[in-house]
Amino acid sequence: MIALIQRVSSASVMVADETVGAIGPGLLVLLGVERNDSQANADKLLRKVLGYRIFSDEAGKMNLNVGQAGGSLLVVSQFTLAADTNSGLRPSFSSAGAPAEAEAWYHYFVKAAEEQGITTASGRFAADMQVSLVNDGPVTFWLQA
């Protein structure tokens, strides 16, 4: 399981001209599910995302996690993160999770984040989404479990 996280001032996701998820300050989490991912992968990645200290403390140092900073999550499914780009000029998605499996792990991740007390919004799995964000920093990290 892969998460590309971006520290944002705000972020939103639209489907067919309707906003389906939006947050103020926090993290935009682009979530990719790989073949053979498990609950252990999802739980480990969520711990990393929620614990990653990329928000500024009083001294201006990246020392706070999203919860300590009072931020929210916007989780958007992003199967292209699981692409194999090692050869050729066309990505292969053979390592991406099957759609039904990926959708189940995506919803699990969102629910588990909510259960941790973090305000969490989400996109719509497998939809054609338009994601808008104001990347704060910019600060972007690739996490994998």
UniProtKB/TrEMBL annotation:
GO molecular function list: D-aminoacyl-tRNA deacylase activity
Recorded coiled-coil stretches: none
Main location: cytoplasm
Pfam families given in the database record: Tyr_Deacylase
Keyword tRNA-binding carried by entry: yes
Top-level EC class as recorded in UniProt: hydrolase
Entry keywords, A to Z: Cytoplasm, Hydrolase, RNA-binding, tRNA-binding
Location of this chain's protein in the cell: Cytoplasm
SUPFAM superfamilies: DTD-like (SSF69500)
Reaction catalysed by this enzyme: glycyl-tRNA(Ala) + H2O = tRNA(Ala) + glycine + H(+); a D-aminoacyl-tRNA + H2O = a tRNA + a D-alpha-amino acid + H(+)
Recorded superkingdom: Bacteria
Span of the annotated motif Gly-cisPro motif, important for rejection of L-amino acids: 137-138
Enzyme nomenclature, EC number: 3.1.1.96, 3.1.1.-
UniProt function note: An aminoacyl-tRNA editing enzyme that deacylates mischarged D-aminoacyl-tRNAs. Also deacylates mischarged glycyl-tRNA(Ala), protecting cells against glycine mischarging by AlaRS. Acts via tRNA-based rather than protein-based catalysis; rejects L-amino acids rather than detecting D-amino acids in the active site. By recycling D-aminoacyl-tRNA to D-amino acids and free tRNA molecules, this enzyme counteracts the toxicity associated with the formation of D-aminoacyl-tRNA entities in vivo and helps enforce protein L-homochirality.
Domain observations: A Gly-cisPro motif from one monomer fits into the active site of the other monomer to allow specific chiral rejection of L-amino acids.
Family (UniProt): Belongs to the DTD family.
Assembly and oligomerization: Homodimer.
Protein name: D-aminoacyl-tRNA deacylase
Organism, scientific name: Oceanisphaera ostreae
